[in-house]
Amino acid sequence: DAKTTQPNSMESNEEEPVHLPCNHSTISGTDYIHWYRQLPSQGPEYVIHGLTSNVNNRMASLAIAEDRKSSTLILHRATLRDAAVYYCILRDAYNNNDMRFGAGTRLTVKP
Amino acid sequence: SAVISQKPSRDICQRGTSLTIQCQVDSQVTMMFWYRQQPGQSLTLIATANQGSEATYESGFVIDKFPISRPNLTFSTLTVSNMSPEDSSIYLCSVEGVKNIQYFGAGTRLSVL
């Protein structure tokens, strides 16, 4: 699986938008971009994923660069419950037997 | 979605002993995965467990140390054998659902004295 690069940590104020960046310059044409987050003392949970087009769901939005070498997870209004480690992961559509977790970004949300 | 139950949620064990962790899913799934998360670290894949075949282990993990069973499509176990303090970690199972989304259990927190 191709590697991803994320900032180690970010801070946000409550009820403000948060933009979590991820670089994946070696992404292949069949790699999907997945985002998971891990809340304290819990297992990771799925947030969103996409291939080329921007994606929206009830949790977040995913903005994918035109060249697909980077993406941004957008939390539109951060809450204290969004404090977690966010992982950006690439998964090959045809060889997706596992996920390789990087170090992720630890998001702190300030009241 | 899939609901995953892991048991035990935590345990404290003596070195040299073994612990078996159970992972139960509320629906039939083909692929199950076991991960380790050492204190303050990210997740590392231990092995992939498919029903009807032997588990596939990642580099650095061996069957003698981490034997895995997968007797049916809703259940798997991971055993941590001959434990040492270095095995103190969180062990998590996950399953692959539709659209290649993985669902994780809450994990088993293991402390080895």
Q: SSE order of chain B in H/E notation? A: EEEEEEEEEEE
Count of DSSP E strands of chain A? 9
**Sequence of secondary-structure elements of chain A:** EEEEEEEEE
Residue ranges of chain B: pLDDT <50 for 5 or more in a row? Answer: none
Count helical runs of chain A.
0
Beta-strand proportion of chain B? over 45%
**Shape, per Cα inertia axes of chain B:** globular
Structural class of chain A: mainly beta
Largest sheet entry of chain B = 7 strands, mixed
Question: Could you tell me the strand content of chain A as a percent range?
Answer: over 45%
General form of chain A? globular
Mean pLDDT of chain A: 93
**Average residue-wise pLDDT of chain B:** 94
Contiguous helical run count of chain B: 0
Written account of the structure:
The complex is a heterodimer of chains A (111) and B (113). Chain A has 111 residues and is mainly beta. Chain A contains no helices and 9 strands. Chain A has strands spanning 9-13, 18-23, 31-38, 45-50, 55-56, 61-64, 70-75, 84-92, 105-110. Chain A has a 5-stranded mixed sheet, with no helix packed on it. Chain A has a 4-stranded antiparallel sheet with strand order 2-7-6-5, with no helix packed on it. The radius of gyration of chain A is 13 Å and the shape is globular. The mean pLDDT of chain A is 93. In chain B, the strands form 2 sheets. In chain B, strands 2, 4, 5, 6, 9, 10 and 11 form a 7-stranded mixed sheet that branches. Chain B is globular and about 40 Å long. The model of chain B has no long low-confidence stretch (mean pLDDT 94). In chain B, strand 4 (31-37) and strand 5 form a beta hairpin. Chain B has no helices and 11 strands. By secondary structure, chain B is mainly beta. At the A-B interface, strand 3, strand 4 and strand 8 of A face strand 4, strand 5, strand 9 and strand 10 of B.
